[in-house]
Specification:
This protein has 126 residues and is of the alpha+beta class. Helix content is 43%, strand content 23%. The protein has a five-stranded mixed β-sheet with strand order 1-2-5-4-3. It is globular, with a radius of gyration of 13 Å.
């Protein structure tokens, strides 16, 4: 069963919040058929540790403001190289650019469907 509409909407909000803080290579992956713990991953990259922190903070702020949800768990904030934020329906991964390639989550979940991010696509076209 694919990701719920709620999970897709949360993923789009998280992706837009990441983009607002200049994260790059943002993708949303529907993992509902493969994982019991979450419906979707949002994966984004940042160029340095400070930016990783800013991206994560904005995602948390926007999901709270727009959907009234708080993270269940957050990991990796000490070093800000790979921060994982679990919101239940979605899990957000914000990587330092170098670490994203090393861990290769995109390749690991490459067989899963992606969730369209039309807001980001239209911004990138401009």
């Amino acid at each position: 069963m694919p990701a719920t509409d709620t999970a897709k909407e949360l993923a789009r909000t998280a992706a837009q919040a990441a983009s607002d803080r200049l994260a790059t290579d943002i993708t949303a992956i529907d993992v509902a058929d493969n994982l019991v713990l979450t419906d979707a991953f949002v994966i984004a990259s940042a160029s340095n540790e400070r930016q990783v922190h800013a991206v994560v903070d904005n995602i948390e702020e926007q999901l709270l403001r727009r959907h009234q949800i708080k993270p269940i768990r957050r990991e990796g904030t000490g070093e800000n190289r790979w921060v994982l934020v679990d919101f239940g329906d979605i899990t957000v991964h914000v990587f330092h650019e170098d670490d994203r390639e090393y861990y290769g989550l995109d390749k690991l979940w490459g067989d899963c469907a992606t969730i369209e991010l039309p807001e980001l696509e239209s911004q990138n076209a401009q």
